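dude i think i finally got it to work??
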Amino acid sequence: MTSNTMVSFRVGAADAAAVKAWADRLGIDRSELLRQALHGHLVALASEDDAVTWVHDPLDDGETALATIADWGPAEDWSDLNDATR
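look at this
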């Protein structure tokens, strides 16, 4: 179970109205809308760090070994199956 911490901040009247309108439209509390928005933004910011990490520490041969298998494509030619179902 995670503990929750209260975060409080001020926003302009237009943003506050938009938050209320979207929360009402989605049928969720304003707090839930703001939690989801904050979480999504933090995930996006963290992904920017991930990109830098990949540049500085790319995958090694063992980590990319399965990539060649992904390029094999289908093992059999099933193109005639489409004709058989018509």
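The chain has a mean pLDDT of 86.
im so relieved honestly
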